[in-house]
Amino acid sequence: MVLPALALPVPALPAGFLSLFGDAFNFVFSGQEAETGGVTVGGTSQVVELATKQIEVTLLALAVAILLAMPVGLWLGHRQQGEFLAVSAGNAGRAIPELALIALMAAAIGVGLVNLVVALAILGIPPILTNTYVGISQVDRASVEAARGMGMTEIGIVRKVELPLAVPTIMGGVRTAAINIIATATIAPLAGILTLGDFIIARNVYGDAGVLAGAVLVALMALALEGTLAAVQWAMTSKGLKLNRS
Amino acid sequence: MIEAASNGMMRVGAIDQSFFTDRSSGNCIQDNKLFCPGWVADNYDRYVDPTLQHLVLVGSAVAAGFLIAFALAILAHRHRFLQTPFLAGTGILYTIPSISFFFLLLPITGRGSLTAIIALTAFNLQIIFRNITTGLRNVPPDVTEAARGIGLTPSQILRQVELPLAMPEIIAGLRIATVSTVALATLAVFANGGGLGTEIVTGSNITFKTGIIVAGSIAVIMAIVFDGILLLTGKLLAPWKRKQAIS
Questions:
Q1: Domains identified in chain B and CATH numbers
Q2: pLDDT tens-place string over residues A169-188
């Protein structure tokens, strides 16, 4: 067999379709016996524990990526230099296979929180760097010249003129990075850090109910993060830009 | 109780262990150095099937994503009020992590490459949709006005004026979607969908550095090749852009 069989036509819904969602619901709220026997898995306490870990890892990696990428993007964008570097970083970043990165990091450097955060931050840096550069360098030069003419310092120009105008583009990069990081944090159990992805990956422990529960929880969490960042972007965008949009 | 579930790397998938056999004369697997060229030379053939599977996954997902996104974009171009709901809908599909999407589909499509292709397609839609609508919106109004003036119908304007002028944006969207999908398709292994991820995650592959590097590198090279092909296609389809692209 060379190619995977494309399972067409789509099979009819299995009989237990709805009951599987019921099982997943029970898995989240009351837990069930592990498929491997003995211990109870799932239940709110484990769900909260794993979800907290996933959020923690995601926010840490996002913070590291922002701290490393944004100053470089601001500096290059303000000086209108290094376009090639900033843009190709974004393109190259997209080509990094997340699974290979996490697996190699775990196998070559070791498992653990710090290594995982570094690997995830690597995924977050390219979109933030590229979007910060593009956002800042696309600010109308006339506005920058006017600010300079009024006697603003270069740092003042970046802070008070370029940054506010570039917020939508920069936050677009932050949101892309956040989605990529939280998605990849789902496979963090491969690097020894248990996140909600453990429910998905360790099917032989949690069973189909656990897998489905994990998938639903991860999806909800990613959507919640995206919604929160959209709200942050809205709050950070200056009034003038919002008026301009409508 | 969580201890019992740790060490996730050993449990992934019910995959056949005999897949992982050392045919090299050296001790590449025992030593497990960062990279062992001897092992690669002896085992390159094991990457052929996963690579082909990967190509099928990416090709199907990008093609399906393009067709759907194109139809949505044309609809939204004709009826502007559809733009916001389409953008929001594809945005949700884009945000849901693919690995989670695989298992949300599990009760419906089961395990296999179809599940993987659907999830990867869902991921693609927004990238392509957004670029097509941006490209169409950026066509200067003077140009469409002139086209109307010489008597073209709306669908002629779309096909002969707007779409060709939007081509660079459309190709740019396809490039982003394709490169991201090549990287993301390594996760298809979790849906039992094959691809290069099998050579990273299956059985004891997860701890074998040389194997991970080879599979990851094939994915990166595939992304670069696809990107190059699309870049050239874009230049052929939009010859008037060539001068700008060079400068």
A1: 48-240 (1.10.3720.10)
A2: 999 999 999 999 999 999 99
